[in-house]
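Retry 2 of 3 after timeout on previous attempt. Resubmitting structure tokens to design endpoint.
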């Protein structure tokens, strides 16, 4: 799990070196004869855009990996169509990857790109509204012919009609240059054209002085079974780098120094939310000394967790790709009964199908982690777009009184710690736990400080191995619902333990004995006991960032953390007092939340839904709140959010 780490502090010295033609050279040699200017920047936002088959996600991922190894702080936003292969050259088929990297601490993938790489007319048209005047646009001119332009409504070429005035446009025949560079490999034109994304990556790597060795090694690994294709991609990558070095159109290259002061000392790697969550679940199973079992059915954007965990059988991980969502959670609940740390992963539509079995887990009082990587809904909705509109579904989306704890990570790296916390709650209190991530966190990435093993919590549990109750006649018996007086958790007995046989199933149990019971008073008691168990879960107090004793609090949860924090920084830089708090625990709420809310004249809650947390806050604390909502499948932009917060404060 740690083989791909990089430390920004350790990379600082290496940053004094440059790359020429894929080979390291002293910094003084980087600009060749010294005829090209090098400008130093504190941050850059780059967006790669093209058809879903143009390899934009791979291009962005490789640029991100090299940026992480260089030591910059970074945040990414992959954005791609739901179709596996959307119609080529159309607006719905555009795939993009945005990367924000800096020499200081950053929080979001950025609001607007400083550089747009547009591989075709559709990519340009789909993204141009986000690009500010004065930004650089690198355009693949080979694709700007009559038919591709007509597909997206360009009646005249935007490269010639003046519509791009005010931008710094770099027309580059990427396809032609790539095909020319790969002549010696004997590939068909179609095969050669596929490497144009590597040409673009090489060009951008030259522009921003990114390392290249790891990308070349990656390409050789990726295409190890097709060495000719591997070397062709390496050649295209080098050709792009050399094109930037030699062409007169790119007279300036840029440096963004490592963020040596943005990170505490330690070993870091770039990590996505789904990968961090997978590692967190593995770490939780090791800290609990329990096998990890994942019962799941593939669904965007949660499938990566299934893919990743299936690679780690050496850590005692067992994965089951079920025939449907119901079978997946049923198998996971069975594994929980059998003594495993059990997990099921899904998105909103899958939660709907799993709801009955989640209710069964509530009744059986077994530990189960339910991971919901939220996406746009309802129904199938927007499979590849983000949303955080499953909060009320997680809270109440089951029949009867079926309370479950709900927690949410705030950043991609925080998914690791949140997975550990979900496991702690599930194992300690014998309950299913909802972990609400979303597509923005799942696919986005940032630097993650790899923790030392002794920094991880001890999650070990004690299985019941002997009878725990004495009957009136002195006989020793096992009562499966005899509770811990502090946590109200029932004992966990592994099937097959002699003398501890007990009944499970969905019908209400008698308190203590676990026998089937239809007694009204017992049902009332069991319902209230299960609720009290969830209400009594120990969660830390909420911390508030309020350096100016503000009168307004902005309260968030989940992936809104980055945009909210960036917006709050902007307001404070403009001398607008504002306090900020961010919830990880959504059920139960932190014990001091009511006191915090009462301190402020105004509470603003930004959410990527229509106000679900605001509804819970109003109902729980009778606190009026100002909801700022967005449900367009994209995360908040910091500038727009700062404007909305300022307007709410001034209203």
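Retry 2 succeeded. Sequence:
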């Amino acid at each position: 799990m740690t083989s791909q780490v990089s430390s920004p502090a350790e990379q600082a010295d290496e940053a004094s070196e440059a790359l020429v033609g894929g080979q390291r050279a002293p910094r003084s040699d980087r600009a060749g004869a010294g005829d090209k200017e090098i400008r130093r920047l504190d941050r850059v936002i780059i967006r790669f855009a093209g058809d879903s088959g143009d390899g934009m996600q791979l291009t962005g991922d490789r640029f991100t990996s090299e940026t992480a190894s260089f030591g910059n702080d970074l945040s990414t936003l992959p954005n791609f169509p739901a179709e596996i292969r959307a119609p080529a050259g159309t607006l719905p088929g555009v795939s993009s990857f945005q990367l924000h990297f800096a020499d200081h601490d950053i929080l979001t993938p950025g609001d607007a790109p400083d550089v747009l790489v547009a591989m075709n007319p559709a990519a340009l048209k789909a993204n141009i509204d986000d690009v500010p005047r004065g930004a650089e646009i690198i355009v693949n001119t080979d694709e700007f012919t009559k038919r591709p332009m007509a597909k997206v409504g360009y009646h005249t070429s935007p490269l010639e009609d003046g519509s791009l005035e005010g931008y710094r446009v770099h027309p580059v025949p990427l396809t032609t240059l790539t095909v020319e560079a790969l002549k010696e490999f004997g590939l068909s034109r179609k095969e050669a054209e596929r490497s144009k994304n590597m040409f673009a990556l090489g060009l951008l790597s030259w522009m921003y002085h990114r390392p290249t060795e790891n990308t070349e090694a990656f390409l050789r690994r990726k295409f190890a079974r097709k060495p000719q294709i591997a070397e062709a991609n390496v050649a295209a990558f080098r050709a792009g780098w050399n094109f930037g070095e030699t062409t007169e159109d790119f007279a300036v290259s840029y440096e963004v120094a490592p963020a040596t002061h943005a990170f505490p000392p330690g070993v870091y790697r770039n990590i996505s939310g789904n990968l961090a969550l997978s590692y967190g679940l593995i770490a939780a199973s090791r800290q609990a000394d329990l096998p990890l079992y994942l019962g799941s059915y593939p669904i965007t954007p949660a499938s990566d967790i299934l893919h990743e965990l299936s690679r780690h059988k050496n850590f005692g991980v067992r994965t089951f790709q079920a025939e449907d969502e119901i079978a997946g959670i049923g198998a996971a609940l069975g594994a929980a009964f059998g003594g495993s740390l059990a997990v099921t992963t899904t998105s909103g539509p899958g939660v709907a199908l799993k709801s009955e079995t989640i209710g069964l887990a509530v009744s059986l009082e077994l530990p189960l982690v339910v991971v919901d990587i939220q996406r746009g809904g309802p129904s199938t909705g927007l499979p590849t777009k983000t949303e955080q509109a499953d909060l009320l579904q997680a809270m109440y989306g089951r029949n009867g009184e079926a309370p479950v704890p709900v927690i949410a990570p705030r950043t991609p790296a925080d998914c690791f710690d949140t997975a550990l916390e979900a496991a702690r709650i599930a194992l300690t209190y014998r309950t299913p736990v909802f972990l609400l991530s979303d597509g923005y966190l799942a696919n986005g990435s940032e630097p993650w400080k790899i923790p030392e093993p002794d920094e991880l919590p001890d999650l070990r549990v004690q299985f019941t191995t002997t009878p725990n109750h004495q009957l009136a006649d002195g006989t020793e018996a096992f009562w499966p619902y005899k509770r811990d007086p502090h946590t109200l958790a029932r004992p966990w007995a592994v099937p097959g333990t002699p003398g501890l046989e007990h009944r499970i199933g969905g019908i209400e149990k008698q308190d203590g004995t676990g026998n089937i019971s239809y007694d009204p008073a017992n049902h009332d008691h069991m319902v209230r006991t299960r609720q009290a168990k969830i209400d009594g879960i120990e969660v830390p107090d909420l911390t508030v960032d309020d350096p100016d004793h503000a009168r307004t609090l902005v309260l968030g949860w989940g992936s809104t953390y980055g945009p909210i924090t960036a917006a709050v920084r902007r307001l404070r830089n403009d001398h607008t007092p504002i306090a900020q708090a961010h919830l990880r625990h959504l059920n139960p709420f932190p014990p001091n939340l009511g006191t915090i809310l009462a301190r402020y004249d105004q509470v603003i809650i930004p959410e990527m839904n229509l106000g679900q947390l605001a509804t819970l806050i109003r109902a729980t604390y009778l606190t009026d709140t100002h909801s700022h909502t967005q449900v367009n499948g994209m995360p908040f932009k910091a500038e727009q959010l700062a404007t909305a917060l300022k307007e709410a404060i001034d209203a």
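Attempt log closed. The CA atoms of residues 483 and 490 lie 4 Å apart.
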